[in-house]
Amino acid sequence: MSEKSKFFPVISVLTVIVILWYGFSVVLNSPWAFDQAKRNTISLSFPELVSKTWSQKRPKLPTPHQVASEMWNTTVHQKITSKRSLVYHTWITFSETMFGFLLGTSLGILLAIAIVHNRATAISVMPWIITSQTIPILALAPMIIVALGSAGFSGLLPIAIISMYLSFFPVVVGMVKGLRSPERLELDQMKTWSASGPQVLIKLRLPKSMPFFFTSLKLGMAAALVGAIVGELPSGGGGGLGFRMLSGSTFGNTLHIWSGLFSAALLAAALITFIGILQKVILKKMALEL
Amino acid sequence: MHQPNVIEASNLHLSFETNDGPVNALSDVNLSIKKGDFVSFIGPSGCGKTTLLRVLADLDEPTSGAVTVNGVSPRDARLARAYGYVFQAAGLYPWRNISSNIKLPLEIMGYSKSEQKSRVSKVLELVELLGFEKKFPWQLSGGMQQRASIARALAFDADILLMDEPFGALDEIVRDHLNEQLLKLWKSTNKTICFVTHSIPEAVYLSTKIVVMSPRPGRIIDVIESDLPIDRPLEIRDTKKFIELSQRVREGLRSGHSDE
Fold first, then answer.
1. Do B78 and A194 touch (CB under 8 A)?
2. Residue A67 lies in a domain
């Protein structure tokens, strides 16, 4: 679909969401507004109610403009080294995500190469890889933090490991498919040249797997970010968007939760867009675009 | 003058299992090919002509029987780089330009960079593609892509060229032109060529020896030694001798079908 024809559907959906959001803000925040009015023995007209529900300091559901101004204040008006700065927390989550993503992608590629080249590996390892993803990460994360903590690792590494745990999976699955994508003719051709396994890998399988690789990277990146945020929850004190959202939830500060949530979404969008651009440029250069 | 046999097959059988039971892809195939021969394998689909070529190339293994290429087993011949194989599709890598596509087997075989370069220009000249080194496969017509793929098979000095319907997907005008070029190339390089086709004129025009095959089971019906002159302009196809040869091939193909 062209950019132009995408514009109106996207905008109409967005508009509906914003309208619903403001509506729910009124509904969810009105009990407190009525309470306040009762205490001051005044009655509220509808416009007064709306303006009161849209401007509470600790609303049940903050409005979009409150979230936006919270985000603005905590990025622009705070030193980026301050724990009150969203940039500070986003940076922490970003580094954990990147670290976990790199670990996960490397692990995923190595596993895929082993699976494609060795039937025994394919049979013995693949079920475990799938099983690993059925265990709720929320249950596993504290154990990883504790285990690694008792081994003397704290800070970035344990969280990156949790992030890796989620992000290697789409890379394995995608790369196994990609490395197996050469056709019979191409493999026969390699055989007529008596090419070795590593030569077939480097000259045929890896280049041919590029479209699958980039799709895997996008999924892996999204998973790495989720892993980093989940990993921050049991670590405590380290900072990051997950920590920010958890503390917001603990202290009933919904603005912290929502601004953290939106920062995470923006971070994910930026990272995936970046991979998408790389994908476009490289696949076009390789004449492999689909 | 006695020429040594480059390819020798005796009592060759090959069957494989399918859901409908075993299929005899090759049955009692006996064949000898001399150095410098241009041999065409012709027959309807399922007659085992491609399978025979794949056996010679060590891509398929016979169930029983003996086959030698250059006096050794197909596997040893493959490892000794005795043959170049041209497939039905050009199989060029879209991310490599023409020159680097032709270099691919040379890289695999460990030729030096300078050797690769000189060989690429040599074979590009043979297939008349000089000047297209930097072009990518998608910038070339189907016929040119197939020529590049022939150049790639020629690049490493194999004495034997195995070609599996290399021009099957091309239109007749391009095909005529490539057939002419292939004959020229064969004469100038003195290679032994095994050529699979299902076109009678193509087989008769190109070959010194025509092997007519028939399906179910895949077997050789007739081996025709062509006495057409070595110099063959396209017009030779209108001569009496050419027509007679074509008729003999057609009769062979028809007799193989008599059971249907």
1. yes
2. no
DSSP 8-state class, residue A204: I
- Are B78 and A186 an interchain contact pair (Cβ–Cβ within 8 Å)? no
A29 and A156 housed in the same domain: no
Nearest to B85 among A192, A203, A285 (CB): A192
Chain B residues close to A203, C-beta within 8 Å: 104, 107-108
**Is residue A71 a part of any domain in this protein?**
no
Phi and psi at residue B69, in whole multiples of 5°?
Answer: -125, 120
For residue range B23-68, list pLDDT tens digits in order: 889 999 999 999 999 999 999 888 899 999 999 999 999 999 999 9
CA separation, residue B12 to residues A123, A155, A164, B23, B228 (Å): 36, 69, 55, 14, 30
Name the minimum distance, in Å, from the CA of A277 to any CA of chain B. Answer: 18
The secondary structure element, H or E, covering residue A254 is helix A254-285
Give yes or no for residue A160 having a pLDDT over 60. Answer: yes
Of A189, A192, A288, nearest to B95 by CB-CB distance is A288
Same domain, A215 and A252: yes
Question: ipTM of the assembly?
Answer: 0.90
Determine how β-strand B83-86 pairs with β-strand B21-34.
unpaired
* Residues A235-250: tens digit of each pLDDT: 877 789 999 999 998 8
* pLDDT (tens digit per residue) in A171-205: 999 999 999 999 999 999 999 999 999 999 999 99
